[in-house]
């Protein structure tokens, strides 16, 4: 039987090539033009799970895109790990900002990835990180080192809010029963300092529409006499923050979890260079809520951001027009104890209340989810920490993430089990952006580390 390090080294070229083939499929769930590609990716995941050693794999239909379910049950008296991941990816726009085509993967070196990184949409989020688990299972089955049962639930709608996942989980609780849920859809501090995400922010996502006159108007004939929806929308959005970058929606902070100074000081132990942070983003200074550090602003504090804004004429040249309508998409990242439905309601009431009578306002809620915290005394966390410590040579640091994975709170509610977030990406990997990439080191290190989690979780569950 081979140990995991030697197995990864002997098979690394195959592992990389398999991932590259998966990344070539443009499984963009948000765009119906790619629906067949999404379905083809589900088929590819099914075949990969079967080859890796699952005894049973099925493509489960849902109201939306299918969920790929796989399992290898070796002894019902042993613990069961449920692996969650997603095979859909974000749209690649804007295409012109990619240095290479988003679905033609290439390997290039970077400052953070001197051993090379795979550049492609979905490389880190989440095909690369999901596929680490498939290859980890392959190692454990080939070498007879699987210490417990394993189940896989890989969905195709994560990037559009996992709308079918709750439907599936509610109807398949016995099939999905487990002792711990394992997800790799987050990151770590650096390639020399692993971290485990212990907290996720919730999310409220809305689209707003401001309507003025019943048609587009000539700005010379009507300018200054009727409401300009674009001007008004800009003022309304600007009023959502005060001079200290504090969100002005009444009741928004009522249930915000306030961390103690002790907890904040523990978080501050994570290595962080403000100068390197600014340099990486090519900015002169950081910006955010007064009284909090950069790492606190993007993890333990709620936020409100405009994700897109449009209206009127945006084509080449000039067109003197007052648009009938203006639009914006707005996301609010929430901390534990903030209910996303309540925040959406508070936003809607406030946004409608600040609109002048000269316009009409419509707020359309999109997807959302609750925040989540995993306690560090949980055996799943402790098993993950032991796995990272053995693999990297140093203990992991617990870290709260600014991101949102709404389905984690759903899993705890429906399946009554904790989720462990073992991410291997870096914050420089440009997920959701042009030139997304995933380090070769990180990909292979994930395959090397995951079997250790199974080992220690099984031992600690006895």
A few lines on this structure:
It holds the Pfam family M20_dimer. The chain is of the alpha+beta class and 462 residues long.
Detail the topology: elements first, then pairings.
Elements: H1 4-23, H2 35-52, E1 56-60, E2 67-72, E3 80-86, E4 106-108, E5 117-119, H3 127-142, E6 149-155, H4 165-171, E7 180-183, E8 195-200, E9 202-211, E10 217-218, H5 219-222, H6 229-238, H7 261-267, H8 274-281, H9 294-297, E11 303-311, E12 321-322, E13 325-334, H10 340-353, E14 360-369, E15 372-373, H11 379-392, E16 397-400, H12 407-415, E17 419-421, E18 437-439, H13 440-460
Parallel strand pairs: 3-6, 3-7, 7-17, 8-16
Antiparallel strand pairs: 1-2, 2-6, 4-5, 5-18, 8-15, 9-13, 9-14, 10-12, 11-13
What does this structure look like?
This is Acetylornithine deacetylase/succinyl-diaminopimelate desuccinylase-like protein. InterPro entries: Cyt/Met_Dipeptidase, Peptidase_M20, Peptidase_M20_dimer. It comes from Lutibacter oceani. Helix content is 33%, strand content 21%. It is globular, with a radius of gyration of 23 Å. The protein folds into two domains: 4-200 and 371-460, Zn peptidases (Aminopeptidase); 202-256 and 302-369, 2-Layer Sandwich (Alpha-Beta Plaits). The chain contains 13 helices and 18 strands.
């Amino acid at each position: 039987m081979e140990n995991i390090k030697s197995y990864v080294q002997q098979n690394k070229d195959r592992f990389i090539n398999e991932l590259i083939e998966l990344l070539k499929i443009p499984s963009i769930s948000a765009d119906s033009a790619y629906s067949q590609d999404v379905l083809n990716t589900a088929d590819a995941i099914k075949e990969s799970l079967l080859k890796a050693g699952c005894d049973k794999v099925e493509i489960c239909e849902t109201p939306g895109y299918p969920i790929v379910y796989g399992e290898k049950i070796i002894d019902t008296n042993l613990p069961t790990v449920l692996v969650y991941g997603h095979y859909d990816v974000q749209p690649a726009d804007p295409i012109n900002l990619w240095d290479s085509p988003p679905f033609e993967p290439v390997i290039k070196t970077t400052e953070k990835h001197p051993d090379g990184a795979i550049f492609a949409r979905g490389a880190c989020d989440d095909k690369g990180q999901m596929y680490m688990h498939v290859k980890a299972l392959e190692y454990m089955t080939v070498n007879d080192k699987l210490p417990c049962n394993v189940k896989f639930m890989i969905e195709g709608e994560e990037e559009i809010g996992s709308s079918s996942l709750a439907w599936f989980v509610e109807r398949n609780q016995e099939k999905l029963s487990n002792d711990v849920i394992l997800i790799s859809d987050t990151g770590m501090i650096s390639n020399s300092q692993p971290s485990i995400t212990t907290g996720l922010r919730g999310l409220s996502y809305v689209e707003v529409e401001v309507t003025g006159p019943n048609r587009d108007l000539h700005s010379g004939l009507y300018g200054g006499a009727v409401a300009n929806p674009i001007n008004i929308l800009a003022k309304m959005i600007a009023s959502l923050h005060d001079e200290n970058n504090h969100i002005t929606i009444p009741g928004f902070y009522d249930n915000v979890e306030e961390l103690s100074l002790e907890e904040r000081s523990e978080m501050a132990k994570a290595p962080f260079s403000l100068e390197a942070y600014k340099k990486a983003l090519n900015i002169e200074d950081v910006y955010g809520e007064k009284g909090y550090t950069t790492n606190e602003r993007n993890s333990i504090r709620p936020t409100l951001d405009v994700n897109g804004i449009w209206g009127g004429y945006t084509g080449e040249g000039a067109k003197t027009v007052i648009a009938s309508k203006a639009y914006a998409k707005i996301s609010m990242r929430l901390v534990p104890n903030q209910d996303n439905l309540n925040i959406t309601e508070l936003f809607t009431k406030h946004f409608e209340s600040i609109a002048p009578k000269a316009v009409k306002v419509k707020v359309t809620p999109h997807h959302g989810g609750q925040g989540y915290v995993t306690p560090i005394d949980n055996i799943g966390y402790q098993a993950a920490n032991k796995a990272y410590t053995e693999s990297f040579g140093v203990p992991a640091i617990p870290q709260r993430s600014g991101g949102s994975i709404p389905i984690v709170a759903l899993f705890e509610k429906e399946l009554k089990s904790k989720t462990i977030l073992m991410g291997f990406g870096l914050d420089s990997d440009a997920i959701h952006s042009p030139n997304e990439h995933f380090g070769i080191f990180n990909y292979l290190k994930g395959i090397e580390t995951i079997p250790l989690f199974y080992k220690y979780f099984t031992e600690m569950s006895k």
